[in-house]
Amino acid sequence: MPLTGRWTLTRYLIEKRRRHPQASGELNALILDVSLACKALARIVSRGPLGAGLSFAGGAVNVQGEVQKPLDVLSNEVFLRMNEWNGHLGGMASEEMEEPAQIPASYPRGKYLLVFDPLDGSSNIDVNVAVGSIFSILRAPAEVLHSGRNVVAEDFLQPGAAQVAAGYAIYGPAAQFVLSVGDGVAVFTLDPELGEFVLTQANVQVPPDTQEFAINSSNARFWEPPVKRYVEECLAGKPGPRGKDFNMRWIASMVAEAHRILMRGGVFLYPRDTKDPDKLGRLRLLYEANPVGFLMEQAGGRASTGRQPVLGVTPSSLHQRIGLVFGSRNEVERIERYHLEPPAPHAPAPLFATRSLFRY
Ligand code: AHG
Ligand code: MN
Ligand code: MN
Question: Second label for 217, Cα 20 to 30 Å away, from 33, 178, 352, 355?
Answer without folding.
Answer: 178
